[in-house]
Amino acid sequence: MGADDDAEESAYTFQCAKCGWETTGDRRPVACEVCGGRMLANPSERTR
């Protein structure tokens, strides 16, 4: 009954523009933890 986000840990996926490292969270990280590059927001991979 409406259990859409039962196993959803966070709302967004972010990917580094430089090295491609990915992380998830509610807000965009300031910089990549791996190389210090800029983090880009990716659309959620939720398929309907």
UniProtKB/TrEMBL annotation:
Identification of the protein by name: Rubrerythrin-like domain-containing protein
Native source organism of the sequence: Halorhabdus utahensis (strain DSM 12940 / JCM 11049 / AX-2)
